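lol ok so funny story. i was supposed to be doing the assay writeup but got distracted and ended up predicting the structure for this chain instead. priorities right. anyway since i did it might as well share w the group, maybe its usefull for someone
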Amino acid sequence: MKWQNALKDYQLYLNIERGLSKNSIDNYTLDVKKLVHYLEERQIPDSPISITSEIVQQFIYELAKTANARTQSRTISGLRSFFNYLVFEDYRPDNPLELIESPKIGMKLPDTLSEDEIDQLISAIDLSKPEGERNRAILETLYGCGLRVSELINLKLSDLFFDEGFIKVTGKGDKQRFVPIVETTQKFINIYKEQMRPHINIQKGHEDILFLNRRGKQLTRAMIFTIIKQLAEKIGLKKSVSPHTFRHSFASHLLQNNADLRAIQLMLGHESITTTEIYVHLDKGHLTKVVEQYHPRK
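and the output, tada:
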């Protein structure tokens, strides 16, 4: 079996059997491609079936010279998944990563913005430009609904249920959920949708996409990153800011205002409450209040 054929089969498995998104599939594939590149550079002829634990271990050793612990751990996890698939399909009897341990990494707490910093970023948008109202609606939606960037760019006009106070969001693995949307966010989306969007020459196939670029096509993830980065530079914000920062801030601010963790989990679309619990670690003040309010010996 050649690496290219094994990768194609693996991608189909991730898509059909596990229902992963294209971005997740690309990430898993990239981990395997790193190993393939290493083998090609050193003219090592081993196939996915014949490669040994020793060769994989040497690859991890070389990777450790340039990659941090988090990247190493991610690559090992991706490779382990790939070889587990080969074992599952009876292509090989064992997983060469069984005895390879991932480096220990500390929990990385996400960056968040204060309410004032979010207001500053949104206020820095130049509303005199054609894309100004769109960009304001984008940031208000990221923060107001806690969306992932992929969920934002795929948001459709037919996903807006403003009369009911919800939007329909398609998350990881094409799983859908309904997220509450406050009137303020609705207002800014409506301004863009009713006053600016009708003047765009919308390309075929993009008629239902909410946020469009100047050419009438769906925005890319990279464009959302660029918009936010430029605004951060404009106000002199020193924090590392990305679309995900607005999602983290959404969750953290809800928690600070005593929102239920289970409710936050549902709005974020986290499968496990454990993922949502990272926001508890961000707000130690919240933990103190909980103890003071509910502990019998307060």
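The first strand starts at residue 160 and ends at 161. Residues 66 and 202 are 45 Å apart (CA to CA).
back to the writeup now i swear
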